[in-house]
Amino acid sequence: MKTLILAAIRCSLMFLVTGSLFSARPAQAYTVTLEQMGANVVATGSGAINLTGLTLIASDVFSFVQVFASAGLIETGPASALLDAYTGFAGPTSFGSGGLFFASAGSGDFVGIDATANPDPFITVPQNYVSGAALSSSATFDNATIHSLGLTPGTYTWTWGTGLPNQNFTLVIGAAGVPDGGWTVSLLGCGLLGLAASRRKLSC
To answer: pTM for the full model?
Structure first.
């Protein structure tokens, strides 16, 4: 029993130390994830956008929270907001065969991408957005499925600039694994320590 208690203490210490190594991470590039949640499809966006390499083409503009897969368009956030639009990126022109669908609800910062807008494809960010600042947004499409919205599961990325951090906009459709910053490794280590301690106890 004493061995098991000591192993548990060591495991807890290792978990705290290992977890702290991964807790302080820089802001990640902006990513939107579209997932099926019950009867609805929910889009969740977070991260930062580095505007270096993009060109401002419009300010004080207005748009809608929507998805248009065949046109490479998705915008998330509140129903009403003033925006800045930037162009100068490259990437896919669609992420499915679906038509235009407006969200039932949205919140957070208004952020989006229109990969086929004429004459200039553009990325939308909140008006007077400071390059590199953290963004967070969401949109919900009620009574919809990934299929009914015409979305093709996968990962789609638009890039610009010279490869600096956060010079990309990523869309993930469907259930995709997300790195957990090392917590799974820590938990696995704890489990192995506990198993080893149990085997030693049984062999006494």
So the answer is: 0.74
